[in-house]
Amino acid sequence: MKCPFCKSEINDNSRFCPNCGKNLPHNRQNTDNNQQDSGFSGTAENSGNQSVTAENPQINQEPVYSDRFSQGDAQFSQNSYQFSQNNTNPQLNEALNGINTMNVMQIICLISMFLPFVNVLSQILLLVIIIMSFGLTSKVSNAFRKFNYEQYARISDGIKTKCAVILVSSVLSIVAVFVASAGIGAESTAVTVSGILIAVVAALTSAMLQIYCFCRLYTVKNALESIALNQELPQKPSSGTVIWVCVIAVIFFLMIVIGGILAAIALPAYASYMKRARFTEVTTIVDAVKRQAELCAFEFDYTNLEGNCDNTRQAAEGSGWALYSPHDYATKYVESVEVVSLNAERARSGKPEIHITATTTRSGFGGRKSGISVVGKVVNKDIDWSVDYSNSPCKTDKLC
């Protein structure tokens, strides 16, 4: 005979089709006909048969092993072949397709997170994943509840909650980065450190939850695939995923600690480097003023410098040179530049001297002023310049 479902050849007495796994309606017509053909013919024979039957009622009954075989046949069909049929529930298939897409996107997001210049795009992709997850997890939860798997539905609901935490942590880390940048610009150590700490904690929380959700999505994916194949699921999911999450979280924690140690070493060095870089603007202006002071000294024959080659009272100008007022030299990092000249009788060295003192602003130098003082001594119609470290705060600030 042929299977009415898949049209394949099967045994006449089969209770199920071994190809498609579906149960078959048991037709006993052929069996009854065979029994009638093999019986006694004629009325007498039939009456004789009835008498024999009355004496031994088991003659025309099916053997006991036949029913047992049929029951075992049906039980074997239900236990072994019912799982070969795929579940075509549209809600289940939609949830499974969404999970597959989500897993691919999350793998790309996790990989790009550690690539330079690409990790910015990973944040955009993460935002897309989180937005998609809210609707997808609801579909997955409904699919699990439809098949009476409440434990897996709760896992899906937990993923949705953690995605909301990831979204908040990501936004908080971005805001903290801007706060830390503003603190660096304002040279506020408290604001900078606070912003960095908040950004690190938020980023660490987001990364750990991403990995957790990634592992749980695979648990959900495998469960949905089992349901699609009509396979039974364990009521309690395996805890191996949680163990892996803990291991990965410890690795991330160690990475953050090592990064924090390196940052603690690098940040002070970077701040000192930036101060020295800003102080070069001060020394550049001082060098320009020194050239003007030399021209002034040349015009006054290197002798009558006092009152002529200084700008403390007012600006001084001459033939091809000019000494502006102290605050006329002000820039972002320079507050003032003073020029004071002394004749030989008032100078400690007994020679005409020119003193140039530059003072920095508070901004860019840790909230306090610094400065440098240089002294030019007239020697043989020339000026010998040197730094007066005793009157130069840049020495103690390690800027010069």
TrEMBL record:
Domain of life the protein comes from? Bacteria
The residue ranges crossing the membrane are 99-118, 124-144, 164-184, 196-220, 241-270
Membrane as a keyword?
A: yes
Keywords linked to the UniProt accession = Membrane, Transmembrane, Transmembrane helix
Instruction: Write out the ranges of the annotated region (Disordered).
Output: 27-54
By its UniProt entry, which InterPro entries does this protein fall under?
Pilin-like
- What's the protein name? Tfp pilus assembly protein, major pilin PilA
Q: Which organism is it from?
A: Ruminobacter amylophilus
